[in-house]
Amino acid sequence: STSALPLNMVFMIIFVFAVVTFPLSILGSMRAKKQDNEFKPPCPPNVKPRELPEIPWYRSTVFQMLMAGFLPFSAIYIELHYIFA
Q1: Cα atoms found within 13 Å of the Cα of residue 53, Cβ hemisphere only
Q2: CA atoms within 13 A on the CB side of 2
Q3: CA distances from 72 to 25, 53, 63, 64, 85 (A)
Q4: pLDDT in tens, 45-56
Q5: Can you tell me the distance from the alpha carbon of 47 to that of 43, in angstroms, rounded to the nearest whole number?
């Protein structure tokens, strides 16, 4: 394909990740672990627990599982209907 990246560019991107990004993330995590920063909240925390409201019907697990399957299926079905019709 003419829009594909050349092989040397792919290797260059992997090389830049291996030489620059990965070592910097390791060094940054090591430095952050050595710092002794104790969390100080800007306001005092509330001691008594707050009441949690009841979950609405559309936030239930079963409904979200149905929608997670139905929405992508319907989008694909409509696209294929227009392609093959």
Answers
A1: 4
A2: 0
A3: 36, 30, 15, 13, 20
A4: 888 888 889 999
A5: 12
Residue at 70: amino acid letter: F
Q: Cα–Cα distance between 34 and 11 in angstroms, integer?
A: 34
Residue 24 structure tokens: 């910097």
Per-residue model confidence as pLDDT tens digits over 64-75? 999 999 999 999
pLDDT at 27: 94
pLDDT of residue 44: 84
Closest CA to 57 of 49, 48, 47, 67: 67
CA 72 centroid distance within chain:
19
* pLDDT tens sequence across 13-61: 999 989 998 899 999 999 988 887 787 888 888 888 888 899 999 999 9
